[in-house]
Write a structure and sequence with these properties.
By secondary structure, the protein is an alpha/beta fold. It is built from 13 helices and 11 strands. 44% of the residues lie in helices and 15% in strands. Strand 5, helix 5 (125-138) and strand 6 (142-147) form a beta-alpha-beta unit. The structure holds NADP nicotinamide-adenine-dinucleotide phosphate.
């Protein structure tokens, strides 16, 4: 495997983990890896290890073309620029796809989300769906990873819910197949390092899907704290999230996740993580046990 592998968003949680797996079990030489960031000082540690670090800003097409030069397989990690008032994030990703085309990248990989098609209740799903469309239209062979929700997302809701003993949701009996971010990174690194030129869409999930009630029961069992699930309508949940201090648009996004769960659009369980990475996925129970102290705050 001698093609150079490039990872954008390499300073982020997922990007750093992908690079660790490339260097680790994928045994990719640092000289065959390019890592990009808007601020190369963030990746000084990777440069020290022999990885080529380049500046790339998704809002700056010229910087992306410069950064992608000489790269064979390019992993575009979706940016975190969620903006309900513009299509900025979709444009960032489209710019990256155009730069990959202009520089002759041989294979494009992208981190999407499950079921991003029009009709998704998730307010930013269109960014992912539009990016998938742009990738397909580019004619570059691709691997799209539709990443399910990270187990780590639970750090955003559980500490407060455990402390108050009440978990407000509008997800009803919908299930989520949370997966460990590092397991998804291991699977993505395997796909990046594989050298495969075939186009594929993989949905990456955890090993089991749970309702909010089932997650709450697991949390209680693990922490010893009672946790009552309270079902409310979307509108009441939005008001509650805003009252907790989150901006209106963030509240709307959070509630759109619950509407998505309720609609059964994040419940699928696949074996793609284990098949790609060759390792056993972390269960939700293992995640809760490993992070009990942090969840208890
Ligand atoms: N599936 C899930 O549950 C879930 C949860 C959270 C997020 N996500 C998505 O998955 C992505 C990766 O997750 P993460 O946890 O690694 O996020 P993260 O730690 O916030 O990292 C995001 C990365 O995106 C890069 N980035 C942001 N804006 C950019 C721009 N304009 N140009 C170039 N790079 C830019 C940042 O790089 P620099 O700042 O160094 O330039 C950073 O490395 C997120 O960005 C988000 O789209 C998914």
């Amino acid at each position: 495997m001698s093609e150079t592998l490039l990872v954008t968003g390499a300073s982020g949680h997922l990007g750093r983990a992908v690079i660790d797996h490339l260097l680790g079990e994928q045994k990719i030489a640092p000289a065959n890896i390019i890592a990009t960031t808007r601020n190369p000082a963030n990746l000084a540690d990777l440069a020290k290890r022999g990885i080529t670090v380049r500046a790339a800003d998704f809002d700056d097409p010229a910087s992306l073309e410069k950064a992608f030069k000489g790269a064979g397989r390019v992993l575009i990690i979706s940016t975190g620029d969620l903006d309900l008032k513009s299509d900025r994030r979709l444009r960032q990703h489209q710019t990256a796809v155009a730069a990959a085309k202009a520089t002759g990248v041989s294979h494009l990989l992208y981190t999407s989300m499950p079921n991003p098609e029009p009709g998704s209740p998730v307010l930013f799903a269109g960014d992912h769906y539009g990016t998938e469309q742009a990738i397909k239209a580019s004619g570059i062979p691709y691997t799209i990873f539709r990443n399910g929700w990270y187990q780590e997302n639970l750090f955003m809701s559980l500490p407060h819910a455990i402390a108050s003993g009440k978990w407000y949701t509008s997800a009803a009996d919908g299930r989520i197949a949370h997966g460990a971010r590092d397991d998804m990174a291991a699977a993505i690194a395997a796909g990046l390092a594989s050298g495969s030129g075939e186009s594929h869409i993989y949905t990456l999930t955890g090993p089991q899907a749970f309702t909010t009630n089932e997650i709450a029961a697991l949390v209680s069992e693990t922490t010893g704290k009672p946790l009552e699930v309270i079902q409310v309508p979307d509108e009441a949940l939005t008001e509650g999230v805003k009252a907790a201090g989150l901006p209106e648009d963030v509240a709307r996004i959070v509630v759109s996740f619950d509407a998505n769960t309720r609609a059964g659009r994040i419940a699928e369980v696949t074996d793609a993580v284990e098949k790609l990475s060759g390792r056993k996925s972390q269960t939700l129970k293992q995640f809760l046990e490993a992070n009990k102290a942090a969840l208890l705050g």
